[in-house]
Specification:
The chain is α/β, with parallel strands linked by helices. Helix content is 26%, strand content 20%. The protein has 14 helices and 26 strands. It has helices at residues 48-58, 108-114, 122-128, 249-260, 272-281, 311-319, 329-348, 350-353, 356-369, 379-389, 420-431, 440-454, 477-487, 516-526, and strands at residues 18-21, 26-29, 76-78, 143-145, 161-168, 188-196, 203-208, 213-216, 219-223, 226-230, 233-237, 266-270, 285-289, 293-295, 300-302, 305-309, 371-373, 397-401, 404-406, 416-418, 465-470, 493-499, 508-511, 533-535, 546-550, 573-575. A hairpin with a 2-residue loop joins strand 9 and strand 10. 45% of the residues are buried.
């Protein structure tokens, strides 16, 4: 029985209840601060169901037959706790040593931080950014998948981080028999690419529609029978990148890279139970609806206004397709983003951070709900990742959706395809860490760079002369840029000079002093940063062209090198620190 359940959470530091037993080397719970440690612990007065739920925290590791396996193909394992076991919530007979003196009283916030650190995103993004720490004994809750090199090899503290959060519709867990696809191994039903900027000032959580038509590349998977390559498919639904044809989350990671150009570092996957257990652990999530809702299919029933929901009601809220908008999957995504934003706020609130019992329940719920890649398949690795994700302020976390349009190949509209005109600038923003929110430091940097480009006159596009060289290493980059310059940008006096003498990491524009007006115009058109402009010392002849060399930062013809200064028109956004009512 912990201090909170005994009514003593306000005057006892939770950590002070744990005592090292020198006879066993284990930490054990001292239940009574008024007696010597040699006194045997009293029988727990928790209900049988609660004692059973905690058995795994105090009992020796179970046989391998009891290990949990996830609902999609791939080699999965649950970590076995180390020995000696770290502090759990139960313990064996305490040692015969004398009582330990109580430590000086800590603030509630410091108490809470003793339980915090870890990670997840989505339902899993939401938990990830709060940074809750898990004790070593929680390792045994985590299921893992070896993704066979699909990721980056691991996130780095001095680089941007990309986490793929996957919600599968496999019917696992009590009470979920009526949900999802009855006989399926599960699909990528809800998918969010969570991008955290290099400087940790902002994050973008981009939802990928499950009905997106795309190509799935060949993917290597590891199973109990060894390694095998699953053949790719063309023009199929995105959600089949997981579970179908024995595809594991690594296949979904590879598919996302094909779509966005962003390398995914790690994945986190959860099922229906994650919504129910995580929302219950934090005491519910506040949602707002602009009308009465009675959806017979999801069983969501709410009156107009604000409600705090958890468990089955929370699951119904994120599953409903018929309660809001035009009853499409795209509108369901908006509802899910509003829900996740509210969940983030709840997890960041003092109500959660200062409640040791809530934090412990949350840690248990999160690790039970998670399946992750082996690269972050331990509490320590999740803690390291969580400490990075926790640096992002919720006001600078933006949920958005991959821009799509109806599939033109269909008469009856059931699927969507990428809207390239809007999607490529969005990908460029994520690749260049441009926030979808107003981050002051980035605003200043953008204004400074723009100011450098704005100093001086601009030539007309028709007056710009430029030779294009390909130093990017990407086949066809120079020709693609030439076509864009002439057909879309109006730069008719441009030529393709094929490959540069060598590949270069950054795009450069070399020009003479008397070509500065042309350089500024081309920089405007291509979104070149001030650092890309290389001015010579001697003037050029009247018909002499500038030299544009495309570098490794080139992402596509017409795609700004630095990323747009603002979100493209029509791209939907939900900011995590603001509540939006579902309509």
């Amino acid at each position: 029985m912990d201090a909170h359940s005994r009514g003593r959470a306000d005057d006892i530091d939770p950590a002070d209840q744990w005592v090292l037993n020198p006879q066993t080397g284990n930490y054990e719970l001292r239940l009574d601060h008024s007696t010597e440690q040699s006194a045997p612990p009293a029988q727990s007065t928790r209900p049988a169901s609660r004692r059973a739920a905690n058995a795994s925290r105090t009992a020796p590791p179970a046989a391998s037959a009891g290990s949990r396996t996830a609902g999609v193909p791939g080699q999965r394992r649950r970590r076995t706790p180390g020995t000696p076991e770290g502090p759990g919530r139960g313990g064996a007979t305490p040692p015969a040593a004398g009582r330990r003196k109580r430590k000086p009283q800590k603030s509630k916030k410091k108490k809470a931080l003793m339980w915090t650190s870890g990670v997840t995103a989505g339902l899993v993004v939401a938990l990830a950014i709060t940074g809750y720490a898990y004790y070593e004994h929680l390792n045994s809750n985590i299921s893992t998948v070896d993704i066979a090199g699909a990721g980056s090899g691991g996130f780095k503290k001095d680089q941007a981080i990309n986490i793929l959060v996957i919600g599968t519709d496999k019917r696992t867990g009590d009470g979920n028999e009526g949900y999802g696809d009855k006989n399926s191994a599960g699909h990528a039903d809800t998918t969010i690419l969570f991008h955290v900027s290099k400087d940790r000032t902002n994050a973008t959580a981009m939802s990928i529609p499950r009905d997106l038509m795309t190509d799935i590349p060949d993917c290597e998977t590891k199973t109990a029978d060894g390694t095998k390559v699953i053949p790719g498919e063309q023009n199929v639904r995105f959600n089949t990148s997981l579970g179908q044809a024995e595809r594991d989350p690594g296949c979904t990671m590879r598919t996302v890279k094909e779509i966005t150009g962003l390398t995914v570092d790690h994945f986190m996957m959860a099922d229906f139970n994650a919504v129910k257990t995580l929302t219950t652990a934090i005491g519910g999530v506040e949602v707002c609806v602009n009308k009465d809702v009675d959806d017979k299919q999801s069983k969501l029933k709410l009156t107009k206004g604000r409600h705090v929901i958890q468990g089955e009601n929370a699951l119904a809220f994120v599953r409903t397709r018929h309660a809001f908008g035009n009853e499409s999957d795209l509108d369901r995504i908006k509802t899910q983003q509003q829900f996740l934003s509210s969940m983030i706020r709840k997890m960041k609130s003092s109500e959660t951070l200062t409640s040791p019992s809530k934090l412990l329940d949350l840690a248990e719920a999160a690790t039970e709900a998670l399946t992750v890649d082996t690269g972050i398949g331990s509490i320590k690795k999740l803690q390291d990742l969580g400490s990075e994700l926790a640096k992002v302020n919720p006001k600078n976390i933006t949920f958005t959706t991959l821009p799509v349009v109806d599939n033109p190949a269909e008469t009856v509209k059931a699927t969507v395809v990428v809207d390239e005109a809007k999607a490529q600038p969005l990908f460029s923003m994520m690749q260049n860490d441009v926030s979808l929110t107003e981050v002051k430091k980035k605003e200043k940097d953008a204004k400074d760079a723009q100011a450098a480009l704005l100093k001086g006159a601009r030539a007309e596009a028709s007056e710009v002369r430029v030779d294009v060289y390909n130093g990017s290493g990407k086949t066809g980059a120079a020709q693609g840029t030439l076509v864009w310059l002439q057909n879309d940008a109006g730069v008719l006096k441009s030529s393709n000079k094929s490959n540069a003498p060598r590949e270069i990491p950054k795009t450069t524009l070399e020009f003479a002093p008397n070509q500065a007006d042309q350089a500024r115009k081309l920089a405007d058109l291509m979104g070149l940063p001030a650092t890309a402009l290389k001015q010579g010392t001697a003037d050029a002849g009247e018909t002499e062209p500038m030299k544009l060399t495309l570098g490794g930062d080139f992402k596509g013809a017409g795609v700004p090198i630095t990323g747009p200064a603002k979100t493209p028109e029509g791209v939907q956004k939900v900011v995590a620190d603001k509540q939006v009512c579902a309509e």
